[in-house]
Sequence to fold (628 residues):
Amino acid sequence: MSIAQVARVAFDSALPQLDRYFDYQIPDGLADSIRVGQLVEVPFGRSAKNRTGFVVEIAESSSFSGELSAVASVVSERVLVTPKILELCQTLAARQALSFGELLKVACPDRMVRVDKSWTGEDYRAELVPSHEHEQLAAHQLASISVMPGFVEHNSVLESRWLHEVVRLCHLMLSESQSVIVCVPDFRDVERLQLVFEKANLSEFINSYDTNATKSEQFARHLRALESHPQIVLGSRSALYSPLSNLGAIVLWDEGDEGHQDEGSPYLHSRDVALVRQSIEDCQLVFLQHAKSATVKRLETLGYLQAQTQKSARPNVAFSSDGFRVDSLAHRVIKEGLKTGAVLVQVAAKGSSTSISCSDCGKRSACGFCNGPLWENSKQQVVCRVCSGFNLNITCRDCNSQKVKRGRAGTSRTLQEFGKSFPGVRLIEATGDSGVMFLKGEPAIVVSTAGAEPICESGYSAVVILDADLELSRDHLDATEQAIRKWANALSLLSGDGKGAIIGVSPEFGQALSLWQVDELAANLLNERIELGFPPAVRLVSISGAREDLQPVKTVLEQVEGVRILGISSIETSGDSRLLATYPYSSGAQVAKLLRSAAVAPALSKRYTKSGRIQRPLTIKMDDAKVL
Fold:
């Protein structure tokens, strides 16, 4: 049909059956005011009840043969989703087999009426203090920078090298009246950067995408990002969707950290969002890390990223392989370190024990509620790692024994053991639950899990990595990659004259780490993946749901050239099944299109969970290597 104007509307819904555009006639009264990216109310469904949606396109005609309903009203006169953010969501949906509306919900927070009506813009008065320390980063549009461990002195203050690099790039972009997105995996990184930006007189430019923000605060920061003045958007994954109009650079810190991967829908990795957004914005994209992942190494090998390594002294790192958890090297390094300052000891897990198993037959104990693995917390309570349920009476499913034994010591038990070995020394436990973030330089032993290490203001005099063998033997494809990354980040906290020790690694591996050959290790990991035909050499898809729903999907995927079905297996913790398949990058668009279509049919039949909620029939995760 041919009409005056048609508004194509998308709903911010994850339902596959709503994953399309709906055409509405624009009434004469709204013809001059309606714009792409606005939130509107439209009648929807048999009841024609009004529902809010985003205008994604304005056209002169519609392919719909019937009579179009009219747009009821414009909810907000503001353009809440810019054209480039719409393109970002559309591209990601097509690439990752996602619902476009699902991504709209991520890209634009819920509208808060009071904030929207009262927002008149900010009085922009921030002034930039001149700096000439950004030439190194200015030349590279797409770069991967391996930051050496340690600290640098800036304005008489010691700061980590990677923080210094972030500040330099931000200063460069702001001096050119351009904005920057700084995406980090953890709130600790956000707090550290906020302090450094304050010292660099850049705090007035910060637009913080704090994960603890209220809905009103989330909407206010979204409105601020829509303004034209240069700013630094700082946050985790959601920061990559900020609707900046003058984006000059995206900085992604520690791309290999699991915090960059969405645990829930839409199951995206910050790296993929950043790569797609860079291609749309044609801005700089810089990956910063102490130890790069195999994925970043692949992008370097392809010539997509320009590799750069800082020139500075490597850390003083020793290693041992004698089989004792806390051997003579560990004791010696800790003892020497305590003479001059604080000592960091990184262990594999928090709590009293990393695992629980049967003392008679040795089988790992499983949760009585969901079959997940068990561990013992600092209160000697046996807890499930999956559902967090407390298990009181444990019976072995193989031999019916009720005798259990504890596995490797976690943070709390390790701390107790050090209390006996080093009497009178201050002991600090640091985990994700403890909230310890900063320390003075006085002598102390800090036992920490990876990622929760407090920052010592002058650097640690010693860093000891325990449980290296346990980290390397984890049953995951990226176990070695994650271990190297965790150790490199811990060793980066050493003072200039501090000493590190890695306990429980092979001589070959230990030698590479002591020489700080982390780039070579990443290259080796990539070559292994290429030989095995695993990510990132190929792409991976994981599809979870009822087995009867997975079989038709398997049949469809088998028709695509290059697809390799790894199999369908049961998921013990949920009762569902999971289909795994790999495919070449060249087949990505075809695979995603087929999967989006395949998800619609099962979604039309309503199924309910035990709690009464509608169950999503198929869960599609693209490029989630955690399942391997």
Q: What stands out?
A: The chain is about 30% helix and 25% strand. The chain has four domains: 2-109, 128-309, 316-530, 539-627.
